[in-house]
Amino acid sequence: MNQAGVDTDIITSNITLILGSILLAFAISYGFASRNLVSNMLSSYYGKGKFTEGQRIRIGDEEGVIVRIDSISVTLQQEKQQLVFPSKRLVEEEVIILSGGKDQEEE
Q1: Which residues contact 49 (CB under 8 A, 6 or more apart)?
Q2: pLDDT of residue 106
């Protein structure tokens, strides 16, 4: 079209603008979709220093021994069942440590 004398600058800039808008919409939607996952991962990272496996804790109405802390969740062993909840609850809610974990038993 350039050789025929048609100005393609407008078409090129419109295609660039449309492609940029699609990529921006994708980036924003991906950011909103992964918000909870990233929040849990950061909470787990900062909570690992305060909470260890073997500690008995009470969070809300639930009480149990921490069996596992991974990157997005915490597993509590209760009397007859295991409770898995997001790590961000350790940072956002009031947690009562009822007894120490493995680190405190070795001292």
Answers
A1: none
A2: 42
Q: Do the beta carbons of residue 47 and residue 55 sit within 8 Å? A: no
From the list 33, 53, 41, the residue with the least C-alpha distance to 86 is: 41
pLDDT in tens, 44-82: 777 677 888 899 999 988 899 999 988 888 899 999 999
Spatial contact of 72 and 86, defined as CB atoms under 8 Å apart:
yes
Q: Give pLDDT, residue 45.
A: 77
Q: Which of 25, 3, 95 is nearest to 58 (CA)?
A: 95
From the candidate CATH numbers 1.10.10.10, 2.70.70.10, 2.30.30.60, 3.30.190.20, the one assigned to the domain spanning 35-106: 2.30.30.60
